[in-house]
Amino acid sequence: MGSTNHRKRLAFDKVRKLVARLASKFKDSKPCLFLDKLPAEIRNEIYALAFTPDFKDESETVDLYHTDPPSPALITTCKTISNEAKRFYKHAYRKYWRESNFQLDTTSAREKIMAGDLSYFFIPAIRLYLINLDQISKLVILDNQPDYKLSATLLDSRGGWKGVLKRPGREDRVDFLWVKKHGKGVVELEEVFNSEKELKEALAKDPVATSVRDQLRWFHRTLVRWWVRTSSD
Fold first, then answer.
1. To 10 degrees, the CA torsion angle through 179, 182, 184, 188?
2. CA dihedral of residues 127, 146, 148, 111 (deg, nearest 10)
3. What domain of life does the native source organism fall in (predicted)?
């Protein structure tokens, strides 16, 4: 019993000394000039600028394989800064995904896959899985090959796209595509329309929206094969 109490006293003494050292450290620490000297209005301007993406202009495209949304590092520095800055971070984070002009160029990946390098199939898929796709509203998918140039532009995040297929010596093909996820989780091309108006009317009548993530799964797997198969139309 005596030895047990002795060990407890030693442990308590170590904890007491540790707390004393920490208390002394904080007591002697210098004030934070950023929090104590700068007015709140200036701190707010700094927070807003800190979370603003470094774009040259609003029309600049963002590679969807290499996104760079605002980092939360600043709001992890201390509780006070977190409380002050988190609303600026949340606003900037949502704005980045909703307003950036994203572009997904699959040209080089497709060339590598055709050459037998399957890492170019799996690695981009993993990158796309990790990012916040379902807040995206502006996206263009490109695939440029010697015998065709293909682009698909997101018109409606519920599943509406404008596809353009360009082939040498032939008239451009323009389709308005409705990509839809069905009950068993299968994502399919629901219908092809001749105009954007027809496409949006059909989307408005469907109560179930398909996530952008699921739409990209369909593009990743099916789009080029479907267009190449129907290119003689």
1. -30
2. -20
3. Eukaryota
The closest of 33, 71, 26, 34 to 51, measured between CA atoms, is 71
Residues 140/153, Cβ–Cβ less than 8 Å: yes
Residue 116 falls in which region: left (phi positive, over 0), alpha (psi -120 to 50) or beta: left
Distance of alpha carbon 161 from alpha carbon 223, whole angstroms: 11
Alpha-carbon span 100 to 189, nearest angstrom:
26
Distance between CA atoms of residues 143 and 151, nearest Å? 6
- Measured in degrees and rounded to the nearest 5, phi and psi for residue 122 equal -80, -40
**Which of 148, 220, 158, 224 lies closest to 190, judged by CA?**
158
Q: Model's pTM, two decimal places?
A: 0.71
Q: Which of 131, 113, 135, 132 is nearest to 122 (CA)?
A: 113
Exposure of 28 by Cβ count < 10 A (0-12 exposed, 13-18 middle, 19+ buried)?
Answer: exposed
Q: How far apart are CA 16 and CA 218, in angstroms?
A: 61
CB-CB neighbours of 182 under 10 Å: 11
Question: Is residue 62 scored above 50 in pLDDT?
Answer: yes
CB atoms within 10 A of CB 33: 8
Domain residue extents for the chain: 36-58+68-99, 102-229
| Token pair for 19 | 């707390």
Alpha-carbon distance of 71 to 86, in angstroms, equals 11
CB 82 within 8 A of CB 75: yes
Task: Tell me the per-residue pLDDT of 22-54, one tens digit each, with 9 for 90 and over.
Answer: 445 544 556 677 788 888 898 898 888 888 877
